[in-house]
Each structure stands twice: as C-alpha cells, then as structure tokens.
Amino acid sequence: MNNHLLSDITVDTWVQGGPILLSDLIGSVVLIEVFQVNCPGCFIYSLPRAIELHERYHQQGLVVIGLATAFEDYDKNTLENLQKLVTTGEVIGETFKALNQYGILSEGKLPWKIPFAVGMDRIVAETEPVTDERVLRYAHEFLPDFEKFSDEQKRSVLQQVRHYMEQKSMKAETFERFALQGTPSCILFDRKGQLKDVSFGQIDYKQAMVEHFLAEK
Fold first, then answer.
1. Which of these, 139, 8, 123, 134, lies nearest to 68 by C-alpha position?
2. Beta bridge partner(s), residue 106
3. Which of 10, 54, 108, 128 qualifies as a FRET site for 209, CA 20 to 30 Å off?
4. CA dihedral sign, ordered 209, 210, 211, 212
5. Phi/psi at 183 (nearest 5 deg)?
6. Cβ atoms within 10 A of the Cβ of 138, count?
7. For residues 93 and 76, is the Cβ–Cβ distance under 8 A?
8. For the chain, what is the domain count?
9. Are residues 78 and 145 in the same domain?
10. Neighbours of 160 (CB within 10 A)
11. Are residues 84 and 34 in the same domain?
C-alpha cells in the first residue's frame, strides 16, 4: 500500500458538516466512506454500516466522513444530486430503482439521514492523452498479477483498459489518487493520519480494524 496521508484526501465541496480541515483530525481514527449517488450497494450496505460505526465509536475517537465521487454516470453522480440526497433524502437513478424494489424507501425517500460530514470529491475534465505507457501503468496498478498473464490475456486487458480510458471524460482526484476499484470503498487512517487500509465492497473486518486503531494511543 502506498504511504498516503489523510491530507491526500481531496474534498471539493462540503455539503454537510463542513468545511473540515483534515489536518485538524490528527489524533482521531478517520474512516472515509467513498460512495456514488448512483450506486445501490452503497445505500443498501456500506452507508448504513458506516452510520453504525459512527454511532458506536464516535465518542471513542472515530471520525467518519462520507465522500461522494464519480467514476461513471457523470450526469447522475453530481454535486446537485448529492445536495438533494443530504437535504431531502431523495435518491436517483439505479439507487432509487433498487431501494424502491427492496421496499427500503419511505414515500420515495431514504428513511435515514447521514449523521456525519459529507463532501464531494474533486471531479475535473480528463485532458491527459491516452498513451501506451499510461494504459500499461493502469493495468499494473489494478492487476498486480498482470505480468503472469498470457500474451493473449495481456492484449485483451490492455484493449479494455484503453477503451475505458478513451471514453472517460472526467477524473475524480481522490478516487484516482488512492487507486480505488469502485464504490463502495473505504479508506482508513490511524490517529497519526497515516493510511492503514483501502478496501472495496462490503467488508466484514471493518469494525475489528476500527477497534484495533482506536485502541492504539
């Protein structure tokens, strides 16, 4: 894992509970819950779990921050939709469809509120040209075993990566800096502000990890 620090998290706009100077959080264990507004799994699994952790441990020194990002569906994963979500509980797109189907919504809205600070990752236009070197670097970053692939597999992967990079019009700074694989993702820092874990998906060991770092003085 690279040695990123808490200060490497970029928040472009705070929509709730901010602005927070991340350097002021040194001394706390910090959990950054990364989600997209148009991500059903984020709302069914990981945000409710993050809320549980916040409620259980914030008195012991855990700070949870929700960071909305966008690596796809740029028309839906917007600051405007994030603000709407935080202020009214209104969800959109795939999130609305899935939560509605599961009977989670109450009068079309989320039945719970996010109780911690929420910000938006900085999303900028992607202007860097797609070179062979960039495509290869990206493949290595996301597939540690890339060199073990057969030539045919490598060719196929590089083709897919190139296609992905060519159609990607925007770049989310924190998402890319921490090489996240998707949403929901979780970034955990210890009390010194040092990166301890980056994980993708719904992970079972999150609570044990939070407890472990809270116990460190």
1. 123
2. 109
3. 10
4. positive
5. -125, 150
6. 20
7. yes
8. 2
9. no
10. 12
11. yes
One-letter amino acid identity for 125? Answer: A
pLDDT digit string (tens) for the chain, length 217 residues = 457 888 889 999 999 998 999 989 999 999 999 999 999 999 999 999 999 999 999 999 999 999 999 988 888 999 999 999 999 999 999 999 999 999 999 988 999 999 999 999 998 877 778 788 888 888 887 787 888 889 898 888 888 888 777 766 678 889 988 888 889 999 999 999 999 999 988 777 888 899 999 998 7
Instruction: Write down the pLDDT at residue 164.
Output: 75
| φ, ψ at 44 (rounded to 5°) | -80, -40
The answer to whether position 41 is within a domain reads yes
Query: Using an 8 Å Cβ cutoff, are 49 and 15 in contact?
Result: no
Check: CB of residue 170 under 8 Å from CB of residue 125: yes
Taking the C-alpha atoms of residue 160 and residue 43, their distance in angstroms, rounded to an integer, is 29
Phi, psi of 208 (to 5 degrees): -60, -35
Domain harbouring 182, CATH code: 3.40.30.10
Q: Give the global pTM.
A: 0.81
Cβ neighbors of 36 (< 8 A, separation 6 or more) are 42, 68, 69, 70, 71, 72, 73, 77, 183
